[in-house]
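Example 9 (inverse folding). The structure is encoded as follows.
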């Protein structure tokens, strides 16, 4: 551990210092008040560790006021954990069983979003503390008093000290993005009916602002409730709208009035939806206007729309060349994304009281009660393929083993061993081993310093009382910035200063601390090897491959239904759609963990065994498959002519075959070919023009398949080449190791931003 160089990152030290002041003030105030003011050492201990647990160990996202609200909200949970831990500590077996159940439950609570995930480590510590001897239910009152005082003081410090600027909420970000979408739609509705490069760049930037990685954790709509789900749905629809507007081709001639009316209605709905997200009125009127405008354009193109009699517009469609019909299909795709956006935003603001009618069954969650939504989220992750389930099992088993070892061997201060297990176990074995090495080195250095202090000072508690707040401030300022080695070393000295004020201590206290960290590290390393040692590395491969396999099934079923004239209602609750929706959930959670895992391969967040893969495009492909299938299979029934029906079926089969090849490349088996395989060939993306009178359904299906082809291209190459969707991506290939060999081209307008 080399000398401290504060000039490296002054902003990081400043932020860490502000947080350290809050934690140190709350922890020492509670400790001193109970230890020296009331002579209640048990309450003092729990007050100090309550503040440290929720302020130092927990990583609650958000501003100070947001963190204060979370701390107060989880206070009843803290009481429950202390009570349960106190009574289960009567026997080692009951304490071990309790640790298994509580450890898993707290870790698995991460399915609720960033706030429960960030709070879980602190709650784990508050359960670990009372689960060790002495078994003393008579001290439960003091324990609860301290557990209340510490977090309460922390909440006050978070709310009052160093107020932080409030970042833009996800609603506000989406509203800003919708202003950009409205501007793009208005430009497309007037000469020259196309966007400039600057406009496309602005659309791409607005879409990027809605990606999870660019949104503060506290503002991400990640919860299982109706409002969070609908807000996430709004963001996804907005990103899709921006992408479709940016990729809308220049019309071959002056657009028909119906096309201009749709684009103007899109602009109005985007503006109204943005106002709705800022607590404005429901966008019902512009939603209905766009719905009607889309119906008129659909009828003009020769298709059938809800409320329009079959056959209306078929004679008019014969007058339009295929290029114009493709333009109509693309504009109606824009309208579809806008309608989904408006309906989702109304539910994000008003929940079950939304007035905009939910289109096409996309909002299954809108009428489901909160307990059922939580159960749906928990059930979706209750399997070995969920990284959240894997993490919960790993940490629960490691903590249980640490508690068992501490109980059987009567390890002094055994909760330190469990604390080491909790803080040092990582989601990958490499990261765990790297962390443990640093932690042991830091703990050894800290033990030497603590032993020297205890030897020199002896039993003079006044010295320790003076040193405690200063050292605590130093610990929580430097430790988070300099890493785990410094944090463990500094914390070792800190616990020596605390326990020297609770009971007479010698240099052997530092020796015990070193032993406990060694035991906890060893247990963490063992379970890091035994339980999913590669973290999300392999799981992301499997989840993405499974998503594409499920998507391929739906593509084949949808195009076969269209080709056979069997366009029937396909609710989102259908088995195939449920399977794909579940695959999307697992892939999203694996991708989130993969992005959070540190990398020792150039800081890219991607191990060397994974060449450039756009995992975000895989998730978007899953969403596009769901939305497009539900839209195309809506009643009323539309018959396609034999030639175009066969073309749709063939295109779907070929695209599904490419999806299966990409899935095999992402998650290769023992018999997967190693030779490069083209992802998309010209026949997969360039559909023949239909004869005069071909309904819009054909061109809508082709547009859907082309968008999926672009997604496949992004997966392997990071973005579609210019002209993607017209056969320009034929040269892209993928190997069994998920590699790619781009053959020229560049990212198209809006490419990759979704």
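The amino acid assigned to each position is listed next.
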């Amino acid at each position: 551990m080399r000398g401290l160089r504060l000039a490296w990152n002054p902003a990081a030290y400043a932020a860490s210092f502000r947080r350290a002041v809050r934690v140190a003030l709350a922890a020492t105030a509670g400790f001193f008040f109970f230890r020296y003011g009331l002579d209640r050492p048990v309450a003092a201990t729990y007050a100090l560790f309550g503040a440290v647990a929720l302020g130092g160990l927990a990583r609650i996202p958000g501003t100070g006021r947001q963190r204060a609200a979370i701390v107060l909200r989880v206070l009843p949970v803290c009481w429950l954990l202390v009570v349960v831990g106190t009574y289960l500590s009567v026997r080692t077996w009951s304490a071990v069983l309790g640790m298994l159940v509580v450890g898993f439950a707290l870790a698995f609570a991460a399915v609720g979003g960033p706030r429960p995930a960030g709070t879980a480590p602190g709650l784990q510590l508050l359960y670990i503390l009372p689960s060790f001897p002495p078994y003393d239910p008579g001290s439960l009152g003091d324990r609860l008093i301290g557990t209340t005082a510490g977090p309460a003081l922390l909440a006050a410090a978070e709310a009052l000290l160093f107020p932080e600027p409030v970042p833009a909420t996800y609603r506000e970000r989406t509203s800003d993005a919708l202003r950009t979408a409205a501007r793009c739609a208005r430009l497309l509705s007037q000469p020259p009916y196309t966007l400039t490069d600057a406009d496309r760049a602005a659309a791409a930037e607005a879409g990027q602002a809605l990606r999870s990685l660019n949104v503060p954790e506290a503002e991400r709509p990640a919860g299982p409730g109706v409002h969070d789900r609908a807000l996430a749905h709004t963001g996804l629809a907005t990103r899709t709208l921006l992408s479709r507007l940016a990729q809308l081709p220049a019309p071959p001639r002056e657009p028909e009035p119906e096309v201009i009316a749709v684009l103007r209605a899109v602009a109005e709905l985007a503006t109204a939806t943005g106002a709705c997200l800022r607590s404005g009125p429901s966008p019902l009127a512009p939603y209905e206007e766009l719905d009607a405008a889309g119906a008129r354009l659909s009828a003009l193109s020769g298709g059938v729309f809800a409320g329009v009699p079959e056959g209306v517009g078929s004679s008019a469609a014969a007058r339009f060349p295929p290029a114009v019909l493709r333009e109509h299909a693309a504009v109606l795709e824009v309208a579809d994304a806008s309608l989904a956006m408006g309906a989702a935003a109304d539910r994000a603001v008003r929940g079950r009281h939304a007035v905009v009618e939910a289109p096409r069954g996309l909002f299954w969650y809108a009428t489901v009660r909160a307990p059922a939504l939580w159960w749906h989220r928990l059930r979706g992750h209750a399997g070995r393929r969920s990284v959240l389930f894997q993490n919960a099992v790993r940490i629960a088993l490691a903590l249980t083993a640490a508690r068992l070892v501490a109980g059987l061997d009567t390890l002094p201060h055994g909760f330190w061993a469990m604390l080491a297990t909790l803080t040092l176990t990582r989601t990958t074995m490499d990261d765990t081993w790297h962390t443990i090495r640093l932690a042991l080195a830091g703990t050894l250095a800290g033990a030497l310093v603590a032993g020297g202090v205890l030897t020199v000072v002896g039993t003079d508690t006044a010295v320790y009382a003076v040193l405690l707040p200063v050292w605590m401030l130093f610990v929580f300022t430097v430790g988070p910035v300099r890493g785990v080695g410094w944090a463990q070393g500094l914390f070792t000295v800190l616990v020596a200063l605390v326990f020297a004020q609770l009971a007479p201590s010698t240099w052997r206290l530092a020796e015990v601390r070193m032993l406990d960290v060694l035991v906890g590290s060893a247990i963490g390393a063992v379970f890091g090897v035994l339980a999913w040692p590669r973290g999300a590395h392999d799981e992301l491969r499997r989840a993405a491959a499974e998503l594409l396999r499920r998507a391929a099934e739906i593509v084949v079923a949808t195009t076969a239904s269209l080709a056979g004239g069997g366009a029937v209602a396909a609710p989102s609750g259908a088995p195939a759609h449920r399977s794909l929706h579940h695959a999307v959930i697992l892939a999203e959670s694996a991708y989130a963990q993969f992005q959070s895992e540190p990398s020792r391969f150039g800081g890219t967040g991607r191990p060397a065994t994974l060449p450039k893969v756009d995992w975000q495009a895989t998730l978007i492909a899953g969403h596009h498959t769901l939305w497009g299938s539900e839209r195309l299979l809506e009643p009323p029934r539309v018959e396609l002519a034999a030639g175009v029906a066969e073309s749709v079926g063939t295109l779907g089969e070929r695209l599904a075959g490419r999806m299966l090849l990409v899935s095999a490349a992402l998650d290769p088996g023992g018999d997967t070919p190693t030779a490069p395989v083209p992802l998309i060939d010209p026949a997969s993306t360039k559909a023949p023009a239909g004869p005069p009178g071909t309904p819009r359904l054909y061109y809508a299906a082709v547009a859907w398949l082309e968008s999926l082809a672009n997604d496949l291209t992004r997966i392997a190459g990071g973005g579609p080449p210019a002209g993607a969707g017209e056969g320009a991506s034929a040269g892209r290939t993928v190997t069994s190791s998920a590699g790619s060999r781009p053959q020229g081209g560049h990212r198209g307008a809006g490419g990759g931003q979704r």
